[in-house]
Amino acid sequence: MTKRDVVFPPGRQALYDKNHYSPAIRANGFLFVSGQVGSREDGSPEPALEAQVRRAFENLNGILKAAGSSFDDVIDVTVFMVDPQATFETIWKVVPEYWGQAPYPTLTAVGVTWLYGFDFEIKVIAKAEQQTDQ
């Protein structure tokens, strides 16, 4: 079995341990980041949608930074939105604050009915430098 090269952002490992998943895994020059929601340090959601989207991006950027990457390295994005017809415009007002300049990453947007109390989730694949064995 291949050893997983897991990337943890500072201060949030307990959240991932509690929920039994890795925030990101580095493999073959790529960084596969688990979906990030607008959760506060205690795991609770930001109540306002715009704040929730910003927090999701901040949580994502924390993982990218821990891996030595940034959003500029992101190749593929999947976003999940509860009730996209009602939330899309609000969400997409916030996205350009984090997206950067063209060329943009690829994007898949999915409407869902439930995100464990959240309204927005973002999952990415980014280019990452391969780590050497320590």
How are the SSEs placed, and which strands pair?
Elements: E1 5-7, H1 13-19, E2 24-27, E3 30-37, H2 49-66, E4 74-82, H3 84-94, H4 96-99, E5 106-112, E6 120-127
Parallel strand pairs: 4-5
Antiparallel strand pairs: 1-2, 2-3, 3-6, 4-6
Helix pairs in contact: 2-3
The class by helix and strand makeup works out as alpha+beta
What pattern of helices and strands is seen along the backbone?
EHEEHEHHEE
- The CATH architecture is 2-Layer Sandwich
The largest sheet is: 6 strands, mixed
- How much of the sequence lies in strands comes to 25-35%
- Ends distance: 18 Å
How are the strands of the biggest sheet laid out side by side? 1-2-3-6-4-5
Number of helices: 4
General shape: globular
Q: What's the CATH C level?
A: Alpha Beta
Average per-residue pLDDT, rounded, comes to: 91
Query: What's the gyration radius in Å?
Result: 15 Å
Quantity of strands, as a count: 6
CATH topology value: 60s Ribosomal Protein L30, Chain: A
Low-confidence stretches: none
InterPro entries: RutC-like_sf, YjgF/YER057c/UK114, YjgH-like
GO molecular function, one term: deaminase activity
Pfam families: Ribonuc_L-PSP (PF01042)
Protein name: Endoribonuclease L-PSP
What do these coordinates show?
- With 134 residues, the chain is α+β, with helices and mostly antiparallel strands.
- It has one domain (5-127): RutC-like (60s Ribosomal Protein L30, Chain: A, 2-Layer Sandwich), CATH 3.30.1330.40.
- The protein contains 4 helices and 6 strands, in the order E-H-E-E-H-E-H-H-E-E.
- A 6-stranded mixed β-sheet has the order 1-2-3-6-4-5, with helices on one face.
- Strand 2 and strand 3 (30-37) form a beta hairpin.
- The longest helix has 18 residues, at 49-66.
- The protein is globular.
